[in-house]
Amino acid sequence: MESLPLLILIVLAFVLLIVMPSRQRKKVQAKAQAMQDSLTVGTPVMLTSGIHGTVAGLGEGTVDVQIQPGVVMTVARPAIMEIRTPAADAVSPENTAGPTGTVDGDGDPTDPTR
After folding, report:
1. pLDDT digit string (tens) for 27-54?
2. So where are the chain's domains?
3. Which of 33, 40, 73, 86 is the most buried (most CB within 10 A)?
């Protein structure tokens, strides 16, 4: 009977160290698979390499990503890290005020439109 608490402790350690991380990994994989399955043409995405682009085409295991007008890359579906959404607080270039009080090398105020 003295070994019963030790056996319970070993079983608990097994559950915590083996089963729980595998459940977490399955959840992460399921979330990534759902994100990749939800891709449609025109969706803005970011690749695992940090490249931003727009989905231009979908294949069985690949995605065509347009990174510039006329420049399309074909990548494996797992290379899509996240779907990008426009920031709600994004500032348009017309509403951007340049830095105040800055002066360029010749003493003239800097022009933020340059």
Report:
1. 988 998 888 888 899 999 999 999 999 9
2. 1-37, 40-86
3. 73
Tokens of 103: 């002066």
The single-letter code of the amino acid at 103 is: V
Q: Phi first, then psi: give them for residue 12, nearest 5 degrees.
A: -60, -45
Cβ contact 55:42 at 8 Å: yes
Stated as kind and residue range, the H or E segment containing 58 is strand 52-58
pTM higher than 0.85: no
Query: What residue type is 63 in one-letter code?
Result: V
According to DSSP H, which parts of the chain are helical? 3-14, 20-37
CA dist 64 and 42 (Å) reads 11
Residue 53 token pair:
């682009």
Say which CATH architecture domain 40-86 belongs to: Roll (2.30)
Between CA 10 and CA 108 the distance in angstroms is 74
Q: What token pair was written down for 92?
A: 């348009």
Dist CA 33 CA 108 (whole Å): 55
